[in-house]
Amino acid sequence: MTTFGSIEAGGTKFVCAVGDESLTETDQTVIPTTPPQETLQRCVDYFQAHPVAALGIASFGPLGLDPSAPDYGYITTTPKPGWQNTDFLGFMKRSLAVPIAWTTDVNGSAFGEYVAAKRQGHSVGTLVYYTIGTGVGAGIVDDGKFLGRLGNPEMGHVYVRRHPDDLDFAGICPRHGDCLEGLVSGPTFEARLSRKGETVPLSDPTWDIMAYYVAQAALQTTMTLRPNKIVFGGSVASEGFLEKVRPAFAKLLNGYITVPPLEDYLVTPLVPHNGSATLGDFALGQAALKQAE
């Protein structure tokens, strides 16, 4: 039986998993993110104990994604201490000698959602996946391919119009202040309210302010890409939050173009338990194996 591997590499933990030919997970382990040599070796140890025919890696970044560039396969200018300029892909290739697909963490999630939608018989030409958590990132899958060959799209760092009740908040992005990430990522709750977001009820007006910003991001994405679906994952996103985002989006769109029903267009992930990236990695590994044959 052919098996596929997944590494979902995050700043606090690496989730390594194995899936079967149907891309169903059969085993998983969680490895704390410690210094690179130690963390990557533990990943290698796991896959040596659970051999796979191919592997998909979806990693935190920024990443070197251009195969013609000298930093291809590297975690490059990350703020994660000790991880700058880490040859992640090269280490795994030298250690495991299997075909490996390499992309960003949010691209992995986007691809998993793309695969899940197609499995349910949905027509998905273009899918955009936003993760809203500690930071804000996005991935774009267009007809089964990623957009952004020279690097990952940084759609969390676009600027949005400020909400009139939020003009005194400077934003928390260390580079841009009040970009989208600086206004809607999870830590903004503590910056605004001195409490964690999970303790803030959806009735709090802060959620309406954030919905206004996320609706603008959805509008920009809609006007630029005209996707079939925009998926919102991460700790900040929930169905309750999207119930605030959808009417804000409709007001901003003002009927200018036709989009699918908003309950089908601005959605939470199909794959449960934050499993989108793992499914995406399995599928990307499967594609890498086919390409190598």
TrEMBL record:
Give a yes or no for keyword ATP-binding in this entry: yes
Q: GO MF annotations for this entry? A: ATP binding; fructokinase activity; metal ion binding
Q: What is the E.C. number? A: 2.7.1.4
The family database entries (CDD domains) matched by this protein are listed as: ASKHA_NBD_ROK_BsFRK-like
Q: What catalytic activity does the UniProt entry give for this protein?
A: D-fructose + ATP = D-fructose 6-phosphate + ADP + H(+)
Q: Work out whether the entry's keyword set contains Transferase.
A: yes
What cofactors does this protein use? Mg(2+)
> According to its UniProt record, what is one Pfam family this protein matches?
ROK
Keywords in alphabetical order: ATP-binding, Carbohydrate metabolism, Kinase, Magnesium, Metal-binding, Nucleotide-binding, Transferase, Zinc
EC category name: transferase
Q: Which family does it belong to?
A: Belongs to the ROK (NagC/XylR) family.
Entry protein name: fructokinase
Q: Which organism is it from?
A: Lacticaseibacillus paracasei
